């Protein structure tokens, strides 16, 4: 059984969908949820699932011998999921977990990716560009924002009356439907 660590910075709806998906899985289980924000609601969601949690600082995240690395070892983490986590992953983690860190991006990469392109910023940019479709990209994580190999994409139409909020709602449906399944498929391919 593969132990998954989820990194989350916000409300944690994707984290909850993932924890729910793996609650009865024989393939993997969510063994840890880590956040860079003490007020992230994702922490409360994890507690409801009985998943251990921890909050860390930027220094603890960047230090290869620091608290984050120690927690990953302590919980025997074999796979990392970024679920609304906004910091660039340091080289020591992308190296140690090469091919075993995934992220979800709320647009069709390579468009509308990179530093600062998250959440509402992405949806505003998609609408401003006059795009007729958007969607999600689930990708492997490397040392650059949103540039790892694409594992999966799904699309939704962007209509003339869409706002960033209505587009975000469409994207969330795709995220919750596909992210847990793609994580499981990726883990199974690593076996």
Report on the architecture of this protein:
The protein is α/β, with parallel strands linked by helices and 191 residues long. Helix content is 39%, strand content 24%. The chain has seven helices and seven strands; from the N terminus they run E-H-E-H-E-H-H-E-H-E-H-E-E-H. It has helices at residues 13-22, 41-48, 58-62, 67-74, 91-96, 119-128, 164-190; strands at residues 2-8, 28-35, 53-55, 77-82, 101-105, 133-140, 150-157. The protein has a seven-stranded mixed beta sheet, with helices on both faces. Helix 6 (119-128) packs across helix 7. It is globular, with a radius of gyration of 16 Å. The chain starts with a strand and ends with a helix. The model has no long low-confidence stretch (mean pLDDT 96).
List keywords for this structure.
191 residues, 7 strands
Compact summary:
Helix content is 39%, strand content 24%. With 191 residues, it is an alpha/beta fold. It starts with a strand and ends with a helix.
């Amino acid at each position: 059984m593969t132990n998954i660590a989820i990194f989350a910075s916000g409300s944690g709806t994707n984290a909850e969908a993932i924890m729910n998906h793996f609650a009865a899985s024989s393939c993997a289980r969510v063994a840890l949820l880590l956040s860079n924000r003490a007020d992230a609601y994702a922490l409360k969601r994890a507690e409801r699932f009985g998943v251990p949690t921890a909050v860390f600082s930027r220094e603890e995240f960047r230090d290869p011998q620091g608290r984050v690395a120690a927690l990953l070892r302590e919980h025997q983490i074999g796979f990392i999921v970024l679920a609304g986590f906004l910091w660039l992953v340091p080289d020591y983690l992308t190296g140690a977990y090469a091919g075993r860190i995934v992220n979800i991006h709320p647009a069709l990469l390579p468009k509308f990716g990179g530093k600062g392109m998250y959440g509402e910023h992405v949806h505003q940019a998609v609408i401003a560009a006059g795009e007729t479709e958007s969607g999600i990209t689930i990708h492997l994580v490397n040392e650059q924002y949103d540039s790892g190999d694409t594992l999966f994409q799904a699309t939704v139409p962007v209509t003339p009356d869409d706002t960033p909020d209505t587009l975000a709602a469409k994207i969330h449906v795709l995220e919750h439907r596909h992210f847990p399944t793609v994580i499981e498929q990726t883990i199974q391919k690593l076996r």
